[in-house]
Amino acid sequence: MPAVPFHYVDLRAFSYATEDEKRVEQALRSLLPDDAELDRVENVGHHGDRIVVLSARIERADGMRHVLDRIAELAELDRVLAELDQRVDDNCALFMRLDKQAAFRGEVRLGPGITVRAKVEAYPAKKETAVENARETLSRLADAS
User: Is a pLDDT exceeding 90 seen at residue 141?
Assistant: First the structure.
């Protein structure tokens, strides 16, 4: 993929008190380039339980290509393409949620656990332009895989 029509890609996962934080980190890292830095923020839930938020922002083109190549492995990529109008917001951000358990096993599936937010390049910055740019990129990924 020559150009990457995204400004950045954010990935975030929560590690709840009942989960092994290292396993959640491993699930998140399965989608990231090897050199990606993870931010770790520790919070307290409503009932006093520990919640750790692990997140990464990928801004370099090579890193974004890596994440997009992993997303291209989605069996449900056609579904994502069909839902782009709902998945891109008015701020030109593309959203999807990936299955944390599947990611831990090295698989990529839609589901709960890992939030992906990709800021789509769009000139002018309009939702319609962002949807079209995201469609073009994801279609190219689907054709390549």
Answer: no
